[in-house]
Design a protein that fits this description.
Elements lengths: L1 H35 L3 H4 L1 E4 L2 E3 L2 E3 L2 E4 L9 E6 L6 H4 L1 H6 L6 E6 L3 E2 L5 E2 L12 H22 L6 E6 L1 H12 L6 E5 L19 H6 L10 E6 L7 H13 L4 E6 L8 H14 L2
Parallel strand pairs: 5-6, 5-9, 9-10, 10-11, 11-12
Antiparallel strand pairs: 1-4, 2-3, 4-6, 7-8
Helix pairs in contact: 5-6
């Protein structure tokens, strides 16, 4: 009697063992599938420390390594808008990574921090669209220094370095395009403002009319291709700024592409992001 019970238990153990093995195989297979389909920024992200460029601080940054898992051949610096942070821009790596799998994505935080944990690149006067123009130029200068350090770290050349910015980040991206000592891969400004007044007009630039600003431009001779993208219904940055930047860069015979997205507010959507993908694909050597 006891022997039959032992044999039955032994058979049950063998059956249970087989089921357990099958479950383990299934779990391993699911893990492999999930790992292969993972968003890149969930597994390859790390955060850098505060960065100082001649007294102008960038409050940390995030890095997303190339999707192909190899050493970076290119670099894309992505700049957030006002009252935002680098973390909010991380989906760029997931959306653009498949198109540029050899590219490391760099997401710096702005130079000014807010109490809610967000950042901005320069001050905006209370209850006004007027901005601290000096702060715009300082942020652009700081970003040029940061980009140079990242280029050396990843051994990436200027022509393999792209910059993308939204809103305030777009304004700083344009400063990078104009201030970079060498031609970059490209600069895409989404809903950014072009600040390029002559030295004597910079402090009062926010009070100048569009015509006065146009007459006092001091746009350097730069070769970096630029993309301007904005929504036609933008209620934060008026499309007039888009038109101003377009006309100014074209008048100075700079390499500029433009896209005004019909019906889009102060935001980015699939269509506007596709313009960026096409732009950087076209300018890639």
């Amino acid at each position: 009697m006891s022997r039959s019970i032992f044999i039955g238990a032994s058979r049950m153990n063998k059956k249970s063992y087989g089921v357990l093995v099958l479950l383990c195989i299934a779990m391993i297979a699911l893990f492999i599938i999930a790992f292969a389909a993972r968003p890149p920024y969930l597994f390859s992200i790390f955060q850098g420390e505060e960065f100082d460029t001649e007294g102008v601080f960038l409050h940390s940054y995030h890095i997303v390594e190339p999707l192909n898992g190899k050493p970076a051949k290119r670099m894309m610096v992505v700049l957030h808008g006002a009252s935002n942070s680098s973390q909010e821009m991380l989906p760029f790596a997931r959306l653009w990574g498949p198109y540029f799998p050899d590219t490391v994505f760099v997401f710096p935080n702005g130079v000014l921090s807010d109490i809610d944990g967000s950042y901005k690149w320069y001050k905006r006067h209370e209850n006004s669209m007027d901005v601290d123009v000096t702060g715009v130029y300082q942020a652009g200068h700081a970003m040029l220094g940061f980009i140079h350090v990242m280029q050396e770290r990843y051994r990436v050349s200027p022509e393999d370095t792209g910059v993308v910015g939204f809103s305030q980040g777009g304004s700083v991206a344009l400063q990078v395009a104009m201030g970079a000592p060498d031609k970059l891969w490209g600069v895409a400004s989404y809903a950014g403002i072009l600040f390029a007044e002559s030295e004597e007009k910079r402090k009062s630039a926010q009070t100048l009319s569009v015509n006065e600003r146009f007459e006092n431009l001091d746009i350097p001779d730069f070769q970096t291709p630029v993309l301007l993208v904005q929504g036609s219904k933008d209620k934060v940055i008026a499309p007039q700024h888009f038109e101003f930047a377009r006309d100014a860069l074209l008048a100075h015979k700079r390499d500029v592409s433009t896209a005004l997205i019909k019906g889009l507010d102060h935001d980015m959507n699939g269509k506007s992001l596709q313009y960026g993908i096409d732009f950087f694909t076209k300018t890639r050597k």
